[in-house]
Design a protein that fits this description.
Chain lengths: ~450, ~300
């Protein structure tokens, strides 16, 4: 048996995409670039379509499954697909997060065997292909799923559970508790190694029908048995096990499921799917609080204290929305964080309505700050912001300049209220505007 | 009699810096200003809109207007949350259809799962740097696998220095949600879980309101999730119980009510130290049986 991945189509967002354009969709996409080793696309949306087919199936094959694994743990719901198919299949998946991914196709075929051979060469029989080699138990992780169901219904003394030739894939008694999540023989839907057979046990089905029906001339096995008769307090109380064997010769109401062997072929797509992230682009604007203009103001003279409004509204998302903006005001003030979901410092920000459809976006909030020039500072300040994308924390930083700020022009006068001569010099008590001030002179 | 007159410019005046006497760590909120002609001053919020001031041979006294002490001091207290302080908590993943209510992070067969039959174990959060932590479960360190999909493995030993980034996590804690992210080969990735195997991996993805792989956890702390460090400079007018009938609360100091009531402040400084710039202020609350408005507060 061979498996071939015969067609892979990859569409991607364009490298100039921004989350601000809107949710990614097919209309915004183009063919991805392909080279010898990889196919390159851009987060958060790389659409991969893949077709596969298998050849040279075993003629004794009962069932076959194909698992397509796109290798994407970030977006797992469509990352793996299990199909009961050998012909051409077409599967799709969307990659969201940046990274490198490999696509794997695993084709498993289940062959009925009644006379397994443990070591080649093997003799063929009516049911088994000649030279079919059955892997030994120790190299097989799990047995076909159909056997599992079979095993649940049996006890360990049933001779039909024993395999010929010493191999006992079905030789253990399993309960539902054994196979639950984190149980000793954990079995999840995802881990199922084989198909589930829909094989009806005709004797059992007849039994159920008989129990629920009234006698009918159409029922060749009709007996006058009803559910109420079989209850504990009924006239012929029966347990489930007894009902199964009711009327069955040798207690055999179960149709023996075919014992299976499975062989598997794994094929990996030779190219890597490489998903790149488009980083955000940050911009910090200074707004004139008087005119509201988002341009460097042309005031020839800015005096201390100087109040400005700083705005991140022109920052552009990359692949992912902006999760957080970190403000550094550049004058020794504490660093301020504005995040999408945590805003304990709301009073410092003003809503600028830039992105009305997403009110929590940190770019919606401008910051008002007052700069003071004093003896130890130059006339210019360099505030900056860092915009951080969600899920990947990719960041970009932008800075701007506030100033030059001149020393405050003194308003009217200062008042000397009182002075006192001390041993260390003269002390003056004065007032500047509404502020009490102490001075000394030697 | 001759009189010596000495002229000085205002720029010759040296401003005096004031400190609070009883707690050096508590800085008074203020700024240093320079005006034209070289006039300088230290401006304190404490002295803004003051009511009166006088300086005598030994003491300078200033009567302030009604002041909120939180505005007088620079950051009187600081909230340090987990990430800055250590913590111990149980973690619950955000519930969704795949978890069906079984959301607790549990230890089973030396691996962490969401739900299942394992043992509920608290996660120890150990700060290394501000908001960068190591995580431990019992004696095991949580480490991120080197390669995608960045499984979380438990190891009793620490990694060597060149790989120590794999057992460091950035922590974000707010709105009763805690998130961890780690530096991987592909960049920073958030701690989440595989919805099929229920094991922890760094594969968290959120797109605004759309959660692809949730990376928020809900902590149930066994320790304090935050500490307030500093002092709380609020002034309360309080009322005790006057439980005459049964006298139960007469024996306790339980408060009936406490209302924040800012008052005027009386600031005193030793005049003799002012000129040497070693002046330390003492701040007294002006509080009597009456409110700062001058009469008994009828609402208390």
């Amino acid at each position: 048996m061979d498996v071939e991945i015969n067609q892979v189509n990859v569409k991607t967002l364009k490298p100039n995409y921004s989350w601000d354009i809107g949710n990614p969709h097919i209309g915004l996409m183009e063919e991805a670039s392909i080279n010898e080793y990889e196919i390159v696309g851009y987060a958060p949306f790389v659409h991969v379509g893949l077709s596969a087919v298998s050849y040279d199936q075993n003629p004794y094959m009962l069932l076959t499954t194909r698992e397509i694994d796109f290798g994407d743990s970030y977006n797992p719901e469509t990352s793996t697909e299990l199909l009961p198919i050998s012909g051409v299949s077409y599967s799709t998946h969307n990659y969201v997060m940046p990274g490198e991914y490999k696509i794997t196709v695993t084709q498993t075929q289940y062959i009925k065997t009644n006379n397994p051979c443990c070591e080649p060469p093997c003799e063929g029989n009516l049911f088994v292909q000649q030279d079919l080699y059955i892997e030994k138990e120790i190299s097989r992780e799990r047995y076909p799923y159909s056997w599992m169901w079979y095993c649940f219904m049996q006890n360990d003394t049933d001779p039909r559970m024993k395999y010929f030739g010493g191999l006992e894939p079905a030789g253990e008694c399993l309960t539902w508790d054994d196979c639950t999540f984190q149980g000793p023989r954990q079995l999840t839907w995802d881990e199922a190694q084989g198909p589930s057979f829909e094989i009806r046990s005709k004797d059992v089905s007849w039994q159920w029908k008989n129990v629920v029906s009234n006698p009918s001339s159409l029922d060749i096995y009709a007996q006058d048995i009803q559910w109420t008769f079989t209850k504990r307090e009924g006239i012929i109380p029966k347990t489930w096990k007894e009902i199964k064997t009711l009327g069955c010769e040798g207690g055999n109401c179960i149709e023996v499921l075919p014992l299976l062997s499975a062989n598997k072929v794994v094929t990996q797509y030779e190219k890597t799917i490489k998903v790149l992230e488009i980083p955000p682009q940050t911009y910090l604007a200074v707004v004139n609080t008087n005119t509201g203009e988002y341009l460097p103001d042309n005031d020839a003279f800015k005096s201390s204290p100087y109040t400005v409004r700083l705005s991140p509204k022109f920052t552009r998302c990359g692949s992912f929305p902006i999760e957080k903006i970190i403000w550094d005001l550049g004058d020794g003030s504490p660093i301020i964080e504005r995040t999408r979901n945590n805003n304990s410092n709301d009073t410092m920000f003003i809503y600028n309505k830039e992105i009305e459809r997403d009110i929590k976006d940190p770019r919606n909030y401008d910051l008002i700050h007052t700069y003071y020039r004093n003896n130890s500072t130059t006339g210019c300040f360099y505030p900056s912001i860092t915009a951080i994308a969600s899920s990947t924390s990719t960041a970009d930083t932008a800075a701007t300049v506030v100033g030059p700020i001149e020393i405050e022009q003194l308003n009217p006068s200062i008042d000397i209220i009182q002075n006192e001569l001390t041993n260390d010099g003269k002390v003056y008590l004065g007032q500047v505007k509404d502020q009490l001030v102490f001075w000394t002179s030697k | 009699m001759s009189i010596l007159t000495k002229h000085q410019t205002l720029s010759a005046l040296t401003p005096i810096q004031i400190e609070y006497e009883y707690e050096n760590a508590q800085k008074l909120k203020g700024s240093y200003s320079i005006y034209t002609h070289g006039i300088r001053s230290y401006n304190y919020e404490l002295f803004k809109n003051f009511s009166d001031a006088a300086i005598s041979k030994k003491t300078a006294l200033i009567l302030t207007s009604i002041k909120d002490l939180k505005q007088v001091f620079q950051e009187p207290f600081e909230n340090k949350k987990v990430g800055l302080i250590a913590g111990n908590c149980f973690l619950d993943a955000v519930n969704n259809l795949s978890l069906i209510g079984d959301t607790r992070v549990k230890l089973f067969n030396d691996q962490l799962y969401i739900g299942g039959r394992g043992e509920e174990v608290p996660i120890q959060i150990i700060p290394i740097e501000p908001n960068i932590v190591r995580l431990k479960v019992k004696q095991f360190n949580l480490q991120v696998s080197e390669n995608y999909p960045f499984d979380i493995v438990l190891s009793p030993t620490s990694l060597p220095d060149n790989e120590s980034y794999r057992e460091r996590f950035y922590v974000e804690f707010y709105n009763n949600s805690i998130m961890f992210k780690s530096q991987t080969k592909d960049g920073l990735r958030y701690l989440s879980y595989d919805f099929r195997t229920k094991t922890l991996k760094c594969i968290g993805v959120h797109l605004n309101a759309t959660t692809i792989n949730s990376y928020s956890f809900i902590p149930t702390f066994l320790t304090q999730s935050a500490l307030q460090i500093g002092f709380d400079p609020t002034v309360h007018e309080i009322k005790y119980y006057n439980d005459v009938d049964n006298g139960i609360k007469q024996k306790t100091v339980e408060l009936l009510s406490a209302v924040q009531m800012d008052t005027s402040l009386l600031v005193s400084l030793p005049s003799t130290k002012l000129a040497s710039s070693q002046a330390k202020a003492n701040i007294s609350l002006l509080k009597t049986n009456y409110s700062n408005q001058g009469s008994f507060n009828p609402t208390i």
